[in-house]
Amino acid sequence: MPLKTARFQTRLAHELALPPPFSAICLREVGDAFAYATSVAAEKGAGTLVYVGRFDLAEFAVVLEPEEPLVGARRIFYAGMSALADALAVHAQPETSIVIDWPDSFLVNQGLVGGGRLAWPTDVGENETPPWLVFGAMIRTISMTGKEPGLNPLVTALEEEGFTDVLSSHVVESFARHFMVAIDSWAESGFDAVAKSYLERMPREAQKPTAMVSSMYAAKTARS
Description:
Oligomer: single chain
Order of helices and strands: HEHEEHHEEEEHHH
Shape: globular
Helix content: 25-40%
CATH topology: BirA Bifunctional Protein, domain 2
Number of domains: 1
């Protein structure tokens, strides 16, 4: 690795204020957080958070080590989605609509800003405990189209919707804190607490019973 790249990565890592047990690996703008996290998941282990240093996009992926078979462990996807929605809400203006479009997209004021996905080893069976999972997400913070805000109502960015502190690093830091809250809630109250939080972010007409969410472990997740 060139010395310049190493310095750039170290500086970015120090700028991320992450709670335990997270540790940051920061990539340059051309990096792919999700791909990199899946490639090092077995080596780096749980809590590794890979972040791409871009100002227009919050792109990150976190390595997890589940303690249950894959068929149930995939439910962590809902915890990640719920945590990221809560993280966005922290920086939003009052009355801003933040919705999860089933199962993996985020809409802000009805415009698409990004989404999440999940990876696991391809050689692990449904009833086997995977050595790792990777939850990753991308959120558009600033529009790079050069067009006037609102010209494409189906796609938007946080800046266009009045978000404050829209630096990508702030989104990632906020996600990490809310993700730990979601995991603690799961441990204390069971998965129903996570499912409830996820469902509350969906459009009212599309909300599904908690039992249905519990059974839809693999909806639109991505294998590594």
